[in-house]
Amino acid sequence: MVAASAAIPLDGRAAPAAAAFASACRKEDGSFAVALLDAAGRLVGDLPLASRGHDIAWSPSTGLAVAFARQPGRFAIAFAPDGGRAPLLVTPPENRAFFGHGVFSPDGRLLYTTENDLDEGTGRIGIYDATGSFAREGELASGGIGPHELVLIEDGRTIAIANGGYETLPETGRQPIDIAGMRPSLVFLDRQTGEVKASHELPDALRALSIRHLAVDGRGSVWFGGQWEGSPDTTPAGIIGCASRDRPLALMPSAADLGRSLKGYIGSVAMSRDGTTLAAAAPRAGRTLLIDIETGQIRFEILLRDGCGIAAVGSGFVLSSGHGRLVARSDGGGEATMADLPDLAFDNHLRWLAG
Fold first, then answer.
1. DSSP structural state of residue 4
2. How far apart are CA 95 and CA 141, in angstroms?
């Protein structure tokens, strides 16, 4: 039997229609919230969270957003950034936990979430009715263990899933389980039938590279950022790559020390709106790379301490940091600080709410 999610109105302040960005954050007093910002990076509202948040899914069709707890989490908050409806608390069944990410169907009627089956230790994709109380409608197998980010590719029907390869549990937080047995994969799944269209795994020598975050280039290829769970001394040169339903995983060619210089950790990725440039943030190294996807060459590099959130905006990107900074980078090469909000520590992801 499929358990229904709880949908409970919460107290909280939503932002006016001017909200253009959303990010989970930690406030100066140690509490957690979703920060809502206008297009200039000014704080226009916030939505309190019970604990640390992670990513935010947004539907341009309905204008609704969902903020997810950091993995392995037991809550998500559905809300309207324009304040048009009361926020709702969404919880998974007792034997499931959220893994921090979700994506809406193109019409905004369904929400798909990455989850862990706490009984079996396998990945699940939860399906929720986003037209009302976000009741749970069912689930699909993720095709692996520890699904993290999922994205919808251009056909509107196929979901790409980054199976990180290891399990985490609510009682032990982000402590990985069975690193030695990791099997990260990138799975292409038919969201309507549950059929696995393709499943790609890394070679044995790279099994400790957890596939975590995804971006779509609009031509069927999905780019990923990895996180190395092995010894730092054995960090591979390539921790960024791509695949499609018809092409296996391929790591981006790089200098011999790139993986180590990025501290073996990509915290988020985003594709430019024209589909030509991948932004990959390495917050532990304080570096965000802008990569030409045709050549695999690094076009630009942005130095931002603890910079991780990325949103593709206009002809460039906006980056957020754990120190409250928002930095804009245009395609022409201009870079400028949009906002400096030292009272806020932005979490790993930044969501653009304007299309």
1. P
2. 15
Cα–Cα distance list, 152 to 190, 217, 314 (Å): 10, 11, 21
Strand partners, 271: 278
Q: pTM of the predicted model, to two decimals?
A: 0.93
> Which residues are within 8 A (CB) of 314 and not within 5 positions of it... i.e. 6 or more apart?
273, 330
How far is the first Cα of the chain from the last one, in angstroms, to the nearest whole number?
37
Cα(85)–Cα(168) distance, rounded to whole angstroms? Answer: 33
**Eight-class DSSP state of 265:** B
Q: List, in sequence order, every residue forming a beta bridge with 243; answer none if it has no partner.
A: 222
- Return the closest-CA partner of residue 278 out of 293, 258, 268: 293
Closest residue by Cα to residue 211 from 199, 202, 220, 198: 202
CB atoms within 10 A of CB 97: 25
pLDDT of residue 231: 93
pLDDT digits 0-9 by tens, 2-43: 333 333 333 444 444 589 999 999 999 999 999 999 999 999
User: What are the helix (H) ranges across 73-132?
Assistant: none
Question: pLDDT for 115-136, tens place per residue?
Answer: 999 999 999 999 999 999 999 9
The edge-to-edge listing of strands for the beta sheet with 110-117 is 96-104, 110-117, 123-129, 136-141
d(CA 1, CA 3): 6
d(CA 99, CA 73) in angstroms, rounded, equals: 6
Single-letter code of the amino acid located at 303: L
CA distances from 204 to 185, 231, 234 (A): 12, 15, 14
| In contact, 161 and 125? CB cutoff 8 Å | yes
Which residues have CB under 8 Å from 68's CB, separation 6+?
Answer: 53, 54, 55, 56, 57, 76, 98, 100, 101, 102, 113
DSSP 252: P
Hey, what amino acid is at 180?
A
